Every structure is written in C-alpha cells, then in structure tokens.
Amino acid sequence: MGIIDPPPDERTPTIWDEHDLDAHDYALLCSYTHPEAPNLELNLVTDWYVWVFYFDDHFLEVYKRPQDRIGARQYLDRLPMFIPVDLSSQPTRWSVA
Predict the structure, then answer these.
(1) For every one of its 97 residues, what pLDDT tens digit does the chain have, with 9 covering 90 and above?
(2) Counted domains in the chain
(3) Are 22 and 30 a contacting pair, CB within 8 Å?
(4) Dihedral, CA of residue 54, residue 15, residue 28 and residue 79, to nearest 10
(5) Cα distances (Å, whole numbers) of residue 25 to 33, 48, 52, 63
(6) Cα–Cα distance, 85 to 87 (Å, whole number)
(7) Are 59 and 75 contacting, i.e. CB atoms less than 8 angstroms apart?
(8) Residue 83 sits in which domain range?
C-alpha cells in the first residue's frame, strides 16, 4: 500500500520507514485493546490501526504543517473512493494526487 515505500519525490516527506512501523508494534497494541478478539478479527483491527495512525501522521506532515488547505481538501475528497458502497471499484493503492 506504499506506507513504508520511499517518498515519490523529494518534496514529499518520509512518514514511516520499516523500523518505525516495527517500533510502533500495532499488533501488541491491538492485543492489549482487544484481548478477546479472535485471530482473524485481531488481524483486521490491527490493519485498521496501522491505516488510521499512518493517515494521521501523513496528513499532519503533508498537509497540516505546510498549511496546504487546497491539497488537504482534495485528499479528503478522495477518501470515499476507499470506502465505496460498491466494493468492485476499490483502488489497489493509496496515492496522493
């Protein structure tokens, strides 16, 4: 999904690298916050935590700190593409456009 990939260009900051992702230990966090969850559900919750925390860190670095309101609005306007009612139209990769 591009979370730990190098930035596409020098203007885009690195949000996380593989070391950061490992250090966050979302699997441990989710096992603490959802101790009764079955394995498959715990994996799904962990994926959501990773996405939400990455989204927050990415949005802060790319849009909020530089005060890019136009870019932020365009970014947020694209979010419904990733939670469609018709599941056949999901994009395969998150990208900043």
Answers:
(1) 678 888 888 888 999 999 999 999 999 999 999 999 999 999 999 999 999 999 999 999 999 999 999 999 999 999 888 776 776 766 666 555 4
(2) 1
(3) no
(4) 10
(5) 13, 13, 14, 26
(6) 6
(7) yes
(8) 18-89
**Within a domain: 34:** yes
Residue 12 within a domain? no
List strand residue ranges (DSSP E) for the chain, in order.
none
Residue 9 within any structural domain of the chain: no
Q: How many residues does the chain have?
A: 97
Q: Which residues, other chains included, contact 7 with Cβ-Cβ below 8 Å and sequence gap of 6+? A: 13, 14
Cα–Cα distance, 76 to 68 (Å, whole number):
12
- Is residue 96 in a domain? no
- The answer to whether residues 65 and 12 touch, using CB atoms and an 8 Å cutoff, is no
Q: Tell the residue number behind the tokens 């009612």, with chain if given.
A: 85
pTM of the model as a whole:
0.77
> Whole-angstrom Cα distance, residue 29 to residue 10?
32
